Amino acid sequence: MAYAFRGSCDSHLRTAGVEALSAYSNVAGTTVTRFSIESEAIVNDELDVEQLTKWVDGRDPETGERRGRELVSPASDLILDSTINASKSFSIAALLHPELADAFESLQDRLRDRIIATWQRELNARRGAGGRVRERLARLEVVELQHRRSRALDPHIHRHLWLNVRVWGVDGKWSNVDSRVAMRVQNLINAEGELAARTDPEWAAALAAHGYSLNEDGEITELAHLVRAVSRRSNQIEANRAVLVEQWKSRHPGETPSPDVVQMIDRHAWAINRPGKPSDVNEDEWSELTRAELLRLDAEVLSPRPPTAAPKRGIGWTDPDLLARCAVTDADDRSRASNGRFSVLDIRAGAARAVASAGVVADRDQLQHLIDDVTMRALAHTRDLIPDDPDKPQHVKALVTHVFAQLKSDLGARLTILSNGPSQLPLHTANRSAALRMIAAGGLEPSQQAAARAVADVDRLVTVTGPAGTGKTTMLRVARAALEVRGRRLLIVAPTRKASAVASREIGAPGTSIHALLADHGWKWGKDDAGADRWWRLRPGQTDPATGAIYRGPRRHSLDARCRIVVDEAGMLDLNAADALAQLAIETGAGIALVGDPLQASPVGHAGAMALAQRRAGRDVELVGMHRFADPEYAALTLRLRSPDTIFDALETAATLQWQDHVRRVDDLDAARTALVHGYFDHHDHGRSVAIVTATNEEASYINDAIQQERVVREQINTQRIAIGAEEQRILEGDIVQTRRNDHRAGVENRAIWRVARIAPGALELERLDDSTDTRAVSLEYAADYVHLAYATTVHGIQGETTDISLVGPDVDASGLYVGLTRGRRHNEVVVVARSDAAACEELADAMMRGLPEPDVPDAIRAAHRDLSRSARDAAPEQPDRSELTSWSQAARTALLKADAERADDDAQHHGRAVPADARKRAALDSATRARLQERLHWAEAIEARDLARHLNEDPPPSDQHPDHRKLVAAAPASNQGGLQ
Question: Which pLDDT score, from 0 to 100, does residue 627 have?
Answer without folding.
Answer: 64
